[in-house]
Specification:
Elements lengths: L15 H5 L29 H20 L11 E6 H5 L1 H13 L4 E7 L2 E2 L2 E2 L8 H7 L3 E5 L6 H13 L5 E6 L22 H11 L10 H31 L1 H12 L20 E2 H15 L3 E5 L3 H4 L18 E3 L4 H14 L4 E7 L7 H9 L5 E5 L17 H6 L5 E3 L4 H13 L5 E5 L3 E2 L7 H4 L3 E6 L8 E5 L3 H14 L4 E6 L2 H5 L3 H7 L7 E4 L8 H4 L4 E3 L10 H7 L4 H11 L1
Parallel strand pairs: 1-2, 2-6, 5-6, 8-9, 8-10, 10-11, 11-13, 12-13, 16-17, 16-18, 18-19
Antiparallel strand pairs: 3-4, 7-14, 15-17
Helix pairs in contact: 2-4, 2-12, 4-12, 8-9, 10-15, 12-13, 17-22
Family: Belongs to the transketolase family.
InterPro entries: THDP-binding, Transketo_C/PFOR_II, Transketolase-like_C_2, Transketolase-like_Pyr-bd, Transketolase_bac-like, Transketolase_BS, Transketolase_fam, Transketolase_N
GO molecular function: metal ion binding; transketolase activity
């Protein structure tokens, strides 16, 4: 087992009052499981298929930690991951993505119970879902067991679990055939019991049918004592593990320190010093390449840092060069090969992040393909899973691949999503700054939108500035009263800087502001915001190679937002920028118009 990083205090436990107010305001029992709301809930799994994919991530984490930290004389990591999934989960593509990887990785301590009740919201699954699920899972590399009487076949279920535990090299799917609404005389085996209350009359009929004479919410003593025994048993197991870990710590102090860091989330002292820094004399480079420098620097100092790409590692630049691939026979390694499975990748990373506070997973693809994984990314934000999303090819700047691959609305859409940080760094220092914040924000996921094209290392950028979200890069004004403020992000910050140089030659005082992360800027004090964007200066121009949606918040009614509000095109990057007016010349014209 791995010792839990924390236990829910007594005041946070669910009580009878919570059960009675199921799905009501203030109850700890919401309509779907929420890890941030209900003690004992590991992950948030409302959208179908997310739970089984999270379970794959949880099982991967156990397998990885066991391979790294267990010793011949000390098995310190040893636990199973159990998951329940239904017909709807098996219909969702994400479940197949994740379960394919679980079979490939041979996650033998993952046991999934498939509630095979043949009912979905629209009715019997015969209308849309007739495949052989068992055969599919067998083809994915799973061990499959069928419990035919899931209603009352308790001994069969126990035997199935025992068999599943005996299979070490494959995950197990236990197909448990059940009757939905079992015991209800009039609604059992029908879609009407799927998501609706039985109603008082049918509840009474079900009580009579099952021979249950007790009052509502009454727990008989024999049931209470049966379940309550786990409290003392759990405490004894934790005491036993603590003693075992104390011995482990004496024998293997370095490994113990790393495992402690992973369990508690306490980062090693001085880890941030590993982040690279850059000067204007440093060579120009794509921020995806600068990202790889940061990833490899962090992997050396953060014991829980691991991740990978959806079959684009050589393009996303996400390989950790000092480690091999996490595979069935090399689970101690830290490069995760997800294949072309973006949605499954995101949800698996959520499971990894929620396994232990100090596990810091990252995953990568092209920014436009966040469309394939947005469901998992939203759950990252909702469930406070600090996944780092490394998204390259961030704009029309990717060039010839054309509009299918060129993100337009994506920056705006993620800026609208609660509890997620949308970074668009302009150079090396801002990339390092984004990674520093992303590592620290363990309850907030981060997205880094990174360029394919080379960008210069700009004068005035900094790790510290990036942490504020928006900050002044250059300014030749005095008294906090520039003639015009130019705001840029990512590759367009260079354009803003070049435009400022030309405007200054014409006698204007110009402030250039980098807006690397809107969400961090919004967190700053009113005084700081006034020092960056003074209310008295309404002459403002923003430039970003994406949708202009949302920029009015910062440029105001009298300012101008330069961007792209249609799809891109296939051509070399320089030509596309010129055709769409993402140029210093366009910024200069706009600045003269507003000032």
């Amino acid at each position: 087992m791995v010792k839990p990083c924390k236990q829910s205090p007594a005041g946070m436990q669910c009580k009878e009052e919570d059960l009675k107010s199921f799905r009501q305001w203030g109850s700890k029992i919401p309509g779907h499981p929420e890890n941030f709301e209900t003690p004992g809930v590991e992950v948030t799994t409302g959208p179908l298929g997310q739970g089984i994919a999270n379970a794959v991530g949880l099982a991967l984490a156990e397998r990885h930690l066991a391979a790294r930290f267990n010793k011949p004389d000390a098995e310190i990591v040893d636990h199973y991951t159990y998951c329940i999934l239904g017909d709807g989960c098996n219909m969702e593509g994400i479940s197949n993505e994740a379960c394919s990887l679980a079979g490939h990785w041979g996650l033998g301590k993952l046991i999934a119970f498939y509630d095979d009740n043949h009912i979905s919201i629209d009715g019997d699954t015969e209308i849309a879902f007739t495949e052989d699920v068992s055969a599919r899972f067998e083809s994915l590399g799973w061990h499959v067991i069928w419990v035919k009487n899931g209603n009352t076949g308790y001994d069969e279920i126990r035997a199935a679990i025992k068999e599943a535990k005996s299979v070490k090299d494959k995950p197990t799917m236990i197909k448990v055939t059940t009757t939905i609404g079992f015991g209800s005389p009039n609604k059992a085996n029908s879609y009407s019991v799927h998501g609706s209350a039985l109603g008082a009359k049918e509840v009474e009929a079900t009580r009579n049918n099952l021979g249950w004479p007790y009052e509502p919410f009454h727990v008989p003593e024999d049931v209470k004592s049966h379940w309550s025994r786990h409290t003392s048993e759990g405490a004894a197991l934790e005491t036993e593990w603590n003693a075992k870990f104390a011995e482990y710590e004496k024998k293997y102090p370095e490994e113990a320190a790393d495992l402690k860091s992973i369990i508690t989330g306490e980062l090693p002292a001085g880890w941030e010093k590993a982040l690279p820094t850059y000067t204007p004399e440093s060579p120009a480079d794509a921020t995806r390449n600068l990202s790889q420098q940061n990833l490899n620097a962090l992997a050396k100092v953060l014991p829980g840092f691991l991740g990978g790409s959806a079959d684009l590692a050589s393009s996303n630049m996400t390989l950790l060069k000092m480690f091999g691939d996490f595979q069935k026979n090399t689970p101690e390694e830290r490069n995760l090969r997800f294949g072309v499975r973006e949605h499954g990748m995101g949800a698996i990373c959520n499971g990894i992040a929620l396994h232990s506070l100090g596990l810091i997973p990252y995953c990568a693809t092209f920014f436009v393909f966040t469309d394939y994984m947005r469901g998992a990314m939203r759950i990252s934000a909702l469930s406070e899973a600090g996944v780092i999303y490394v998204m390259t090819h961030d704009s029309i700047g990717l060039g010839e691949d054309g509009p299918t691959h060129q993100p337009i609305e994506h920056l705006a859409s993620f800026r609208a999503m609660p509890n997620i940080l949308m970074f668009r760094p302009a150079d090396g220092n801002e990339t390092a700054g984004a990674y520093k914040v992303a590592v620290l924000k363990r309850k907030t996921p981060s997205i880094l939108a990174l360029s394919r094209q080379k960008l210069p290392q700009l004068d005035g950028t900094s790790i510290e500035g990036a942490a504020k979200g928006g900050y002044i890069v250059s300014d030749d004004s005095s008294g906090n009263k520039p003639d015009v403020i130019l705001i840029g992000t990512g590759s367009e910050l260079e354009i803003a800087v070049n435009a400022a140089d030309e405007l200054r030659k014409g006698g204007k005082t110009v402030r250039v502001v980098s807006f690397v992360c809107w969400e961090l800027y919004d967190e700053q004090s009113a005084e700081y915001k006034e020092s960056v964007l003074p209310a008295s200066v309404t002459a403002r121009v923003s430039i970003e190679a994406g949708s202009t949606f949302g920029w009015q918040k910062f440029v105001g009614d009298k300012g101008k937002a330069i961007g792209i509000d249609g799809f891109g095109a296939s051509a070399p990057a320089g030509r596309i920028y010129k055709e769409f007016g993402i140029t210093a010349e366009a910024v200069i014209v706009a600045a003269k118009e507003v000032s």
